[in-house]
Write a structure and sequence with these properties.
single chain, alpha+beta, 29 strands, about 30% strand
Length: about 450
């Protein structure tokens, strides 16, 4: 009898314990409403929210509480949030938001079931358009806690759409040593000075009959021109206001899906499942003097952009470019190069799992560099301005070039360099391959498995 009583007692105690645990589990909707009070509530509401978080803490609170600490208007509230986070996580990071994110991203993901709704409502307070980026119905290919607000509204860094272009002779604001990003499509040459594009981070235009978006992530030092038409749909891209691993996320106007700049594909939203990857085009980072010499008929951005900015050389992001420090951290870094050392980045659609980075300094010392990705042989030719151009070789071995227009192979055959190809007098052609410059940390954070030549 006593044994039976003990069994029933243990069973009852177990049920009561489980009920108590269940009772202590906070309601997901109540949780996000309460954490939002840290940003939107008055002092009393914030105090109540802090008590709730302390009492009901769960690991999946961390991303939401961290974002609230960053955005709350009350300095004392932020201090109290950090105290709770230090205690609950065992960290001692203080109000170092980048350090918290770096720690968080190196933990297993702990997404709250309503984290996407929380993110939608939180950032919708800043820009109502942000609320459409996030919801539990939207498919995501990336960790949602790695999507950070960059400090501006949608298109708050305004893209240059169908920008005013002028002839080279009219561009008296440019000096020969000014940095430009050069593109040639169907014989139409365009130059986009860094001093202008850094303030806008994107141009959207039609070049040689091809609709193009040139995306400049200043934080990771990358300019990539993409063909915006895919399967007969022309995606109208813009600047979302958010970052992923210190790299700007684009959005498309039709669906408000978020796109990864380095991947050229949607990562959050209804377009994710359509398996879209935009075509990359060739671009060269060079000086205005060198580009104008090669392309005297080039068009170049006018200072008449419709916006008032200091378009002086080096004015935009002057402090950021002057140091090796990051503005927004990334999960992992690689010390083989400094964060902002420039690399030439290559990723071919036939071998998407074999990214390659080649140090720009290394290429300056080796103006003729040959390599292979998968079964594709290629050569990188670097001129005296430091500009890199990549061409397929199909087994041809190049031995020398004049860093201008003439390249010789190991058989003594002369090839003429253009932006599209290398060609011989008898009609042999080797096509240009897409490549672009990037800061090492930015490329590595997107492709941690990349091969590096340095």
């Amino acid at each position: 009898m006593n044994k039976l009583f003990r069994c029933w007692s243990m069973l009852l105690f177990g049920c009561l314990s489980m009920a108590a645990i269940a009772a202590s589990e906070p309601d997901p909707q109540e949780t996000i409403e309460t954490i939002l009070q840290l940003v939107t509530g008055n002092e009393a509401a914030q105090t109540e929210a802090l008590s709730f978080i302390d009492t009901h803490w769960q690991a999946n609170f961390t991303p939401m509480v961290l974002e609230a600490a960053y955005l709350t208007r009350g300095a004392s509230t932020a201090v109290e949030i950090i105290k709770i986070m230090d205690q609950k996580t065992g960290q001692n990071l203080g109000y170092n938001i980048n350090a918290w994110y770096e720690w968080l991203w190196n933990q297993p993901p702990q997404d709250h079931p309503l984290y996407a709704e929380f993110k939608s409502r939180l950032y919708g307070l800043i820009d109502p358009k942000f609320s459409g980026y996030f919801s539990s119905e939207r498919v995501s290919k990336i960790r949602l806690d790695e999507v950070r607000w960059g400090g501006v509204r949608q298109d708050g860094i305004p893209p240059l759409r169908s920008p005013n272009m002028i002839k080279a002779a009219e561009a008296d604001y440019l000096q020969d040593d000014n940095i430009v990003f050069g593109v040639v499509i169907n014989s139409a040459a365009r130059a986009y000075p860094k001093r202008i594009l850094a303030w806008h981070e994107m141009f959207v235009d039609t070049i040689g009959g091809v609709p193009v978006a040139g995306v400049y992530c200043t934080l990771c030092g990358t300019v990539i021109p993409y063909v915006t038409t895919y399967n007969d749909v022309n995606h109208q891209l813009g600047t979302s206001g958010f970052l992923y691993r210190s790299n700007k996320l684009m959005y498309d106007q039709a669906t408000q899906s978020l796109w990864n700049t380095l991947w050229g594909s949607p990562v959050i939203g209804p377009l994710v499942e359509q398996d879209i990857t935009l075509e990359r085009l060739s671009i060269v980072t060079t000086t205005w003097g060198e580009w104008r010499r090669r392309h005297p008929d080039t068009l170049v951005l006018s200072l008449d952009t419709g916006h008032r900015r200091d378009y002086g050389e080096g004015a935009a992001y002057r402090e950021y470019f002057a140091t090796d420090n990051l503005m927004f951290t990334v999960p992992k870094r690689d010390g083989r190069l400094k964060n902002k050392d420039e690399v030439l980045a290559l990723l071919f659609p036939q071998t998407p799992d074999q990214p390659l980075a080649i140090s720009a300094d290394y290429l300056a010392r080796h103006p003729v560099y040959q390599d292979r990705i998968g079964s594709r042989d290629f050569v990188v030719l670097t001129d005296q301005s430091g500009a890199n151009r990549v061409y397929e070789t199909q087994g041809v071995v190049f031995s020398e070039w004049d860093q201008n227009r003439t390249v010789k192979d190991s058989q003594g055959t002369v090839w003429t360099l253009s932006e599209d190809s290398l060609a011989t007098a008898d009609g042999r052609v080797l096509n240009r391959l897409p490549a672009h410059r990037a800061f090492w940390f930015g490329w590595f954070s997107a492709y941690t498995h990349t091969r590096l030549v340095h």
